[in-house]
Amino acid sequence: MSFHLQLYLPKFSGCAIVLLVLFLPAALAAYLLHDLVWFIVVPIGIIIALGLIIMALALIAAALPSKGREVTPSQFADELERHLRGTGRPWDWDDTTSRRIADESLERIRWELTKFDSLTREEDKAELKAIIEALRRGDLPEVVPVKDLTYR
Questions:
Q1: In which domain, by residue range, is 100 found?
Q2: Same structural domain for residues 57 and 91?
Q3: For position 6, what pLDDT does the model report?
Q4: Number of structural domains found in the chain
């Protein structure tokens, strides 16, 4: 369910790009302004500016409203069943319990799933199995009354 992006730069160019981005403007500033202090000031300024840009973009992305992931009751039941059987990948359960779902009724169910993290008690296994069966039948169990939701 998750998407991972890795960029592989050619062997030489990674260090060369960093050095050029940091020290080419510094060398130009030091040469034009006839002061070597710019060799220190400009790279530090570039690092700070990039950090501020990244933080601003992260804040903007966090502030945008997220509709949540589109998942059908059957797909959601599959995710729950993989956790019940122990056949999921290492981060599947975390993705299931922490990523918002667009469907409000499934979102209410997702909100209460953390009590099934360990599944050490038989009662928890039976309750999770009942939720899975209800989702497969098309019934959406009322796990949490809407008035009790506090995360909105």
A1: 73-148
A2: no
A3: 67
A4: 2
Q: What is the pLDDT of residues 65-121, one digit of tens each?
A: 878 889 999 999 999 999 999 898 888 899 899 888 988 888 888 988 888 888 888
| SS3 annotation, the chain | CCCCCCCCCCCCHHHHHHHHHHHHHHHHHHHHHCCCCHHHHHHHHHHHHHHHHHHHHHHHHHHCCCCCECCCHHHHHHHHHHHHHCCCCCCHHHHHHHCCECCHHHHHHHHCHHHHCCCCCHHHHHHHHHHHHHHHHCCCCCCCCHHHCCCC
Residue 1 lies in a domain: no
Binning pLDDT at 50, 70 and 90, where does residue 52 land?
very high
